[in-house]
Amino acid sequence: MNISRVDLNLLVYLDVLLRECNVTRAAEELGISQPAMSNSLRRLRDLFNDPILVRTSDGMTPTDRALELQPMVRTVLAAAEQAILPKTEFDPANSSRIFRITASDYTESTLLPRLLEELLKQAPDIRLDIMTPSDISFHDVERGKVDLVINRFDSLPQSFHQVHLWDDSFSCMVSANNKVKDNWNLDSYLAGKHVWVSKTGMGVGVGMTPDDVQRLGWVDEALSKQGAKRHISVFTRHYTSALLMAEQDNLIVTMPSMAAQSLKQDSNVVILPPPFEIPRMRLKMVWSPLLQHDPGHRWLRQLIKSVSEKMQS
């Protein structure tokens, strides 16, 4: 095949079709008619000798070939976009840019305060718009509507860029008046009442149940492997709320250690090591390939990486 005979606009159409998995929505995003989008899909099928999208009970579903093409097409388009962007340097000291960051409550209580300190020194007019994981979807990230997502992830789209920031252990927090601290072992841990704290995944959250061990996460999966189960009295998605609950005389809070350390000066709370092994939590920073080469975005990523490294030193 001679590439000069291929309409490269078809790659733009393919990229949008695979993100939307819907001809009508793809047409709306590109500002063309639905018949024109349908015709583009027909031409893509001819070009790749593959159906690209097939109708299933779940709607239009990409074929294996389409899923194989998606990251390659995204890389090609990102490179093309970078080639036509004007080459400018980013001046953080004089920038008033707004960066939109999706961050878990854990990230807000650990990384972001340190990041703000550095921003005040290096870029006092830059503003942050902090969003929660339930505010957005991976689709929003891929389209560049959000600059960065800083969270833990079970899985990520192949096209996303990512950087590992740190791994964190777990700690237990109890009230200084809680007698469980005087006989701290697995049996006394299991006999207590617990606060579950986390925010699983992206998108709108759903209710939790004590029996859904896989969705409950690291702590409960680790207990399950030992044939044990804790009694969860409270489910919360906010680490700051869990920190306050740790002051209650009858509750045990198990959370990542860096968040727990924010209360280490509180005389009402005692921090204890878990009486069983829990796998470490991994914090990552991810972003869309559309933003990979943006000078300001690159500066912010480097700053966040630098701040995270200082926090671990």
Mean pLDDT: 87
Main β-sheet description = 5 strands, mixed
Number of helices: 12
Unreliable residue runs = none
The CATH superfamily of the largest domain is identified as Periplasmic binding protein-like II
| CA-based shape | globular
Architecture overview:
This protein has 313 residues and is an alpha/beta fold. It folds into three domains: 3-84, Winged helix-like DNA-binding domain superfamily/Winged helix DNA-binding domain (Arc Repressor Mutant, subunit A, Orthogonal Bundle); 92-156 and 292-312, D-Maltodextrin-Binding Protein, domain 2; 170-279, Periplasmic binding protein-like II (D-Maltodextrin-Binding Protein, domain 2). It has helices at residues 9-20, 23-30, 34-48, 64-84, 105-122, 138-142, 186-191, 213-216, 218-225, 239-245, 257-260, 295-312; strands at 53-56, 59-62, 98-103, 127-131, 148-151, 161-168, 170-175, 193-197, 231-236, 251-256, 269-272, 281-287. It is globular and about 75 Å long. The relative contact order is 0.15.
Describe the protein's topology:
Elements: H1 9-20, H2 23-30, H3 34-48, E1 53-56, E2 59-62, H4 64-84, E3 98-103, H5 105-122, E4 127-131, H6 138-142, E5 148-151, E6 161-168, E7 170-175, H7 186-191, E8 193-197, H8 213-216, H9 218-225, E9 231-236, H10 239-245, E10 251-256, H11 257-260, E11 269-272, E12 281-287, H12 295-312
